Description:
Radius of gyration: 26 Å
Number of domains: 2
CATH topology of the largest domain: Jelly Rolls
Mean pLDDT: 75
Largest sheet: 5 strands, mixed
Distance between the termini: 68 Å
Number of helices: 2
Strand content: 35-45%
CATH class of the largest domain: Mainly Beta
Helix content: 10-25%
Amino acid sequence: MITTTQALDHATGAGMLGLDAAYRLYVGDPSGITIGDTLTAALTWFANRAVGSTLESATDVSLGNLSLQVWWADDTGSQSLVAQSIAPYGTTEFLRFTAPLSGTYGLRVLGLEPVYDLDPTPTASTSCGLAWQTLAVPEPSTLILMAIAAAVPAAGIVREACGRRRTDLRRVVD
Protein backbone atom coordinates (compact mmCIF):
# COMPACT_ATOMS: atom_id res chain seq x y z
CA MET A 1 0.00 0.00 0.00
CA ILE A 2 1.20 3.52 -0.83
CA THR A 3 0.85 6.24 1.83
CA THR A 4 1.83 9.90 1.52
CA THR A 5 1.64 12.84 3.89
CA GLN A 6 2.46 15.32 1.10
CA ALA A 7 -0.62 17.14 -0.12
CA LEU A 8 0.49 18.17 -3.66
CA ASP A 9 2.64 16.60 -6.35
CA HIS A 10 6.00 18.39 -6.79
CA ALA A 11 5.90 18.13 -10.60
CA THR A 12 2.33 19.09 -11.48
CA GLY A 13 0.80 20.61 -8.36
CA ALA A 14 -2.87 19.68 -8.29
CA GLY A 15 -2.92 18.28 -11.85
CA MET A 16 -4.94 19.15 -14.92
CA LEU A 17 -8.47 18.94 -16.31
CA GLY A 18 -9.32 15.99 -18.60
CA LEU A 19 -12.66 16.87 -20.20
CA ASP A 20 -12.61 13.89 -22.58
CA ALA A 21 -12.46 11.42 -19.69
CA ALA A 22 -15.06 13.42 -17.73
CA TYR A 23 -17.47 13.25 -20.66
CA ARG A 24 -16.96 9.48 -21.09
CA LEU A 25 -17.69 9.00 -17.39
CA TYR A 26 -20.73 11.29 -17.56
CA VAL A 27 -22.28 9.30 -20.43
CA GLY A 28 -21.63 5.99 -18.68
CA ASP A 29 -18.61 4.78 -20.65
CA PRO A 30 -15.91 4.28 -18.02
CA SER A 31 -12.92 2.20 -19.05
CA GLY A 32 -11.32 -0.34 -16.73
CA ILE A 33 -7.94 0.15 -15.15
CA THR A 34 -5.22 -2.36 -15.97
CA ILE A 35 -1.89 -3.20 -14.34
CA GLY A 36 0.64 -0.48 -15.07
CA ASP A 37 -1.86 2.34 -15.70
CA THR A 38 -1.11 5.58 -13.87
CA LEU A 39 -3.90 6.69 -11.54
CA THR A 40 -3.96 10.28 -10.26
CA ALA A 41 -6.49 11.62 -7.73
CA ALA A 42 -6.79 15.03 -6.06
CA LEU A 43 -9.04 16.21 -3.27
CA THR A 44 -9.39 19.82 -2.13
CA TRP A 45 -11.59 21.85 0.21
CA PHE A 46 -11.78 25.30 1.77
CA ALA A 47 -11.21 26.41 5.33
CA ASN A 48 -14.37 27.88 6.85
CA ARG A 49 -13.82 31.62 7.15
CA ALA A 50 -16.09 34.38 8.39
CA VAL A 51 -15.84 37.76 6.69
CA GLY A 52 -17.21 40.90 8.27
CA SER A 53 -17.87 44.20 6.53
CA THR A 54 -14.20 44.45 5.38
CA LEU A 55 -11.61 41.94 4.24
CA GLU A 56 -9.44 42.81 7.21
CA SER A 57 -12.15 41.41 9.47
CA ALA A 58 -11.89 37.88 8.03
CA THR A 59 -11.27 35.16 10.62
CA ASP A 60 -10.70 31.44 10.34
CA VAL A 61 -13.57 29.57 11.93
CA SER A 62 -12.74 25.92 11.24
CA LEU A 63 -10.60 23.65 9.13
CA GLY A 64 -11.77 20.20 8.17
CA ASN A 65 -9.38 17.26 8.03
CA LEU A 66 -10.17 15.06 5.04
CA SER A 67 -8.23 12.06 3.76
CA LEU A 68 -8.26 10.40 0.34
CA GLN A 69 -8.19 6.64 -0.15
CA VAL A 70 -8.08 4.44 -3.26
CA TRP A 71 -9.62 0.97 -3.00
CA TRP A 72 -9.48 -1.97 -5.41
CA ALA A 73 -12.35 -4.44 -5.75
CA ASP A 74 -12.26 -7.87 -7.40
CA ASP A 75 -15.11 -9.73 -9.10
CA THR A 76 -16.21 -11.36 -5.83
CA GLY A 77 -16.70 -7.99 -4.12
CA SER A 78 -13.61 -8.28 -1.93
CA GLN A 79 -11.98 -4.88 -1.39
CA SER A 80 -8.49 -3.81 -0.39
CA LEU A 81 -6.89 -0.44 0.30
CA VAL A 82 -4.32 0.36 -2.39
CA ALA A 83 -3.21 3.93 -1.58
CA GLN A 84 -4.06 6.80 0.72
CA SER A 85 -3.14 10.44 1.26
CA ILE A 86 -3.40 11.45 4.91
CA ALA A 87 -1.73 14.85 5.22
CA PRO A 88 -2.63 16.08 8.73
CA TYR A 89 -2.77 19.80 7.89
CA GLY A 90 -3.84 21.65 4.77
CA THR A 91 -6.71 21.67 2.34
CA THR A 92 -5.50 19.20 -0.31
CA GLU A 93 -4.76 15.51 -0.66
CA PHE A 94 -3.00 14.14 -3.76
CA LEU A 95 -2.09 10.68 -5.04
CA ARG A 96 -0.32 9.45 -8.18
CA PHE A 97 0.71 5.82 -8.51
CA THR A 98 0.94 2.87 -10.90
CA ALA A 99 -2.02 0.50 -10.63
CA PRO A 100 -0.81 -2.77 -9.08
CA LEU A 101 -3.84 -4.77 -10.27
CA SER A 102 -6.38 -4.71 -13.08
CA GLY A 103 -10.02 -4.17 -12.20
CA THR A 104 -12.35 -1.74 -10.53
CA TYR A 105 -11.00 1.06 -8.37
CA GLY A 106 -12.96 3.31 -6.04
CA LEU A 107 -12.15 6.59 -4.33
CA ARG A 108 -13.16 7.24 -0.73
CA VAL A 109 -13.10 10.58 1.08
CA LEU A 110 -12.87 10.29 4.86
CA GLY A 111 -13.93 13.13 7.13
CA LEU A 112 -11.77 13.00 10.24
CA GLU A 113 -11.76 15.20 13.33
CA PRO A 114 -11.31 18.85 12.28
CA VAL A 115 -7.89 20.43 12.64
CA TYR A 116 -9.62 23.22 14.57
CA ASP A 117 -13.22 24.32 15.06
CA LEU A 118 -13.97 27.64 16.77
CA ASP A 119 -17.61 27.69 15.66
CA PRO A 120 -20.05 27.40 18.61
CA THR A 121 -22.29 25.25 16.38
CA PRO A 122 -19.91 22.90 14.53
CA THR A 123 -20.74 21.97 10.96
CA ALA A 124 -21.46 18.33 10.26
CA SER A 125 -19.82 18.24 6.81
CA THR A 126 -17.11 19.79 4.68
CA SER A 127 -17.75 20.51 1.00
CA CYS A 128 -14.94 19.30 -1.23
CA GLY A 129 -13.85 18.83 -4.82
CA LEU A 130 -12.57 15.49 -6.10
CA ALA A 131 -10.83 14.85 -9.42
CA TRP A 132 -9.11 11.80 -10.90
CA GLN A 133 -7.41 10.66 -14.07
CA THR A 134 -6.06 7.41 -15.45
CA LEU A 135 -3.41 7.10 -18.13
CA ALA A 136 -3.16 3.77 -19.92
CA VAL A 137 0.23 2.25 -20.53
CA PRO A 138 0.70 1.40 -24.24
CA GLU A 139 0.85 -2.29 -25.12
CA PRO A 140 4.36 -3.63 -25.86
CA SER A 141 3.55 -3.96 -29.58
CA THR A 142 2.66 -0.26 -29.68
CA LEU A 143 5.94 0.65 -28.00
CA ILE A 144 7.89 -1.44 -30.53
CA LEU A 145 6.14 0.25 -33.46
CA MET A 146 6.82 3.69 -31.94
CA ALA A 147 10.51 2.81 -31.48
CA ILE A 148 10.80 1.62 -35.10
CA ALA A 149 9.03 4.74 -36.37
CA ALA A 150 11.44 6.93 -34.41
CA ALA A 151 14.53 4.91 -35.40
CA VAL A 152 14.02 5.02 -39.20
CA PRO A 153 14.23 8.82 -39.57
CA ALA A 154 16.98 8.93 -36.95
CA ALA A 155 19.05 6.43 -38.97
CA GLY A 156 18.74 8.65 -42.04
CA ILE A 157 19.84 11.71 -40.09
CA VAL A 158 22.84 9.87 -38.64
CA ARG A 159 23.83 8.51 -42.08
CA GLU A 160 23.52 11.99 -43.59
CA ALA A 161 25.55 13.57 -40.79
CA CYS A 162 28.25 10.90 -41.09
CA GLY A 163 28.43 11.48 -44.86
CA ARG A 164 28.93 15.21 -44.31
CA ARG A 165 31.69 14.61 -41.82
CA ARG A 166 33.58 12.39 -44.26
CA THR A 167 33.25 14.99 -47.01
CA ASP A 168 34.44 17.73 -44.71
CA LEU A 169 37.43 15.62 -43.59
CA ARG A 170 38.43 14.86 -47.19
CA ARG A 171 38.42 18.55 -48.04
CA VAL A 172 40.65 19.34 -45.06
CA VAL A 173 43.08 16.54 -45.96
CA ASP A 174 43.32 17.47 -49.72
